[in-house]
Design a protein that fits this description.
By secondary structure, this protein is of the alpha/beta class. 38% of the residues lie in helices and 12% in strands.
Length: 346
């Protein structure tokens, strides 16, 4: 929970990791290059006082994550998203097995989502069902640019992907998180294109599609898709740190998202350990648009809008209990000026 100027905010960090990119776990030059690219994002977009050494960044501890999220990070609930990358890392990069150790130890603090790969076809469907039975996740995290042998990516609307989504729907897994943001070397940028979200969201209106990283650098494409598809949400990981590194750019991002998508379908995420949530929460609560004509057509970001983005929207998708004193002080909500009313997350 974060409090500033008498306003209280319930914080759900909807996208973070507990990765192992240590030299001992790194399989090849691609795994080495991947974590170095991650570190460049971390080092170039973080305040100096929150920048780690590369050695610590490769494999941080349970004590680090508990301190950075819950002791100084203002986070009330955290959702771990799994990214396997087993072609690059011997035991995987950020697996459900590793993530779930935190859920088992701190069930009041963490949720964890597993992932699936449609290229596993029938075996993948069986694995999806087994993972759901074992972990009970309410969501999945998909990484469409992940390498698998000779294949360097897949699309959300591929035939076997649609079968996996049908299985999610059958099992009651409602929240589908998809990395649709900046590429990381050596992955293919085009494999993260947002276009496949459009058709898929139409085909599965009862699922919630969380476009992580709000499609950057394809923000305009994402806004148009999210406007048409009321079950499409935006996860703000990667967008958030620009509030420090390029504040005018962040103002443009959040202004466009609020205009097109609306305040009810945007969710805070730190992408930890790329960035630590504490300074992101604090800067977002303090955020106002620059005082010049370029931003005159953006509506004010009120404390209630910030409450929704920082935690209440994600809490609704994941049935997370919010203390009464941290819920909205006023009734009602608004969507984007263009967007349709969002469907109930069910």
């Amino acid at each position: 929970m974060y409090e500033k100027d008498g306003e209280k905010y319930f914080v759900v960090d909807e996208h973070l990791h507990f990765w192992d990119a240590s030299p001992e776990n790194t399989t090849n030059k691609y795994g080495e290059g991947f974590i170095k690219c991650f570190y460049d994002y971390h080092a170039n977009l973080s305040p100096d006082e929150y920048t780690w050494t590369f050695e610590k960044y490769r494999k941080y501890t349970e004590e680090d994550i508990m301190h950075d999220l819950f002791e100084v990070g203002h986070v009330d609930k955290a959702i771990l998203q799994s990214t396997y990358l087993t072609d690059f890392y011997d035991n995987g990069f950020n697996t459900i097995e590793r993530n779930h150790t935190l859920v088992e130890k701190y069930p009041d603090k963490f949720l964890s989502n597993f992932g699936w790969d449609p290229r596993n076809e029938e075996k993948g469907l069986e694995m999806l069902e087994r993972d759901f039975e074992k972990y009970g996740s309410k969501g999945v995290k998909l990484y469409t640019a992940e390498w698998k042998g000779e294949s360097h990516g897949w699309k959300l609307d591929d035939p076997w992907s649609l079968k996996h989504l049908e299985k999610c729907q059958e099992l009651g897994i409602k929240n589908v998180h998809i990395h649709k943001g900046p590429t990381i070397w050596p992955l293919n940028r085009d494999a993260f294109d947002v276009a496949d979200v459009d058709r898929t969201a139409t085909l599965f209106p009862d699922l919630n599609f969380v476009v992580e990283h709000v499609g950057l650098p394809r923000l305009e494409d994402f806004c148009w898709i999210g406007t048409q598809e009321p079950n499409v949400y935006g996860g703000l990981a990667v967008a958030m740190p620009f509030i420090h590194a390029k504040p005018r750019y962040f103002a443009q991002i959040i202004g466009e998202l609020l205009y097109w998508i609306g305040e009810d379908r945007l969710m805070f995420a730190s992408d930890y350990a790329l960035w630590q949530p504490g300074w992101l929460v604090e800067k977002f609560v303090d955020f106002q648009y620059p005082d010049d004509a370029e931003f005159d057509d953006y509506a004010e970001i009120t404390p209630d809008i910030k409450r929704k983005i920082l935690g209440l929207n994600a809490a609704k998708l994941y049935d997370i209990e919010v203390p009464e004193e941290l819920q909205l002080a006023t009734a009602g909500s608004t969507t984007g000026q263009i967007a349709a009313d969002p469907v109930s997350p069910a």
